[in-house]
């Protein structure tokens, strides 16, 4: 069994503390920075999925090993499940980018009669029918890291992908004074997070004279993005800025410019320790969109709240502002590897176990 799939026992203060206000329903704090949209946001009524503990919770990941961020999401979810002793079993299944495998995984969790299911969809449609089956079987479904076309899920916590992409796009528009040529490094083709982050960029570029000179998929992976950036540079090194959909790809492109001894153009980043180290050392122009891997823990908290019988909203939005270099400096850890992402809810012991430099 891999390290990612192990149970983790820790005791730390949760960001998901249940807050009580006299005379009002209990509020569930799922994750710092999460808000509840006021429009078209029905309530999941209190008690609908209430069930006595102990509980078994299942999770279907689109790809645990898709990149270093998804690995940490798994760690964060496992840690949150281990902290709650009412959860006697946490079943994490990995679709490995395969739509058919995700369908089979969700069907398996339904057959196991788990008490709640958390889903990170492979595509915007791959899990729709299976989610409907789960809910029909009385199993609440929590969705995160990618919106879907069906509304059959019980509740969702979505890092606003358009917001994420627009934070990056707005940065480039400002740095380039609204004109110039940019490269666009996209994530995994067909994944809803990639599509919607890109839509945020498109929104930023409206009314500007900024042109997309090249657009390639780096799959949110360092190695693939490095090859993409090397090819782009050799074809035409004259680029005014780079929009990168994820920090592993940003790190790769920065390394390409450094290996060619070229000035690093303004480039968007994300809350990754390796990227923060580059940013601090080389002092290039950037912004960090926030996309915490603790969304994995938030999914666990949402599932628990439903099983406790608490009232939730159907939609939760995670749209924090971008980080500047000074904020990145407060999170950067020289003693940890490039593979840890911020903000995190992992304990100090876990951070050292998973991410200490070897």
TrEMBL record:
Subcellular location(s): the record lists: Periplasm
Gene3D superfamilies for this protein: 3.40.50.2300
User: What top-level branch of life does the organism fall under?
Assistant: Bacteria
One Pfam assignment: Peripla_BP_4
What keywords were assigned to this record? Plasmid
Q: Which SUPFAM superfamilies match?
A: Periplasmic binding protein-like I (SSF53822)
The record's GO CC annotations read: outer membrane-bounded periplasmic space
Named from the GO MF annotations, one term is: carbohydrate binding
Residues forming the Periplasmic binding protein domain are 64-311
Q: Known PANTHER family for this protein?
A: ABC TRANSPORTER PERIPLASMIC-BINDING PROTEIN YPHF, D-XYLOSE-BINDING PERIPLASMIC PROTEIN
UniProt similarity note = Belongs to the bacterial solute-binding protein 2 family.
In its UniProt entry, what is this protein called? ABC transporter substrate-binding protein
- Per the UniProt entry, what species is this protein from, by scientific name? Pararhizobium polonicum
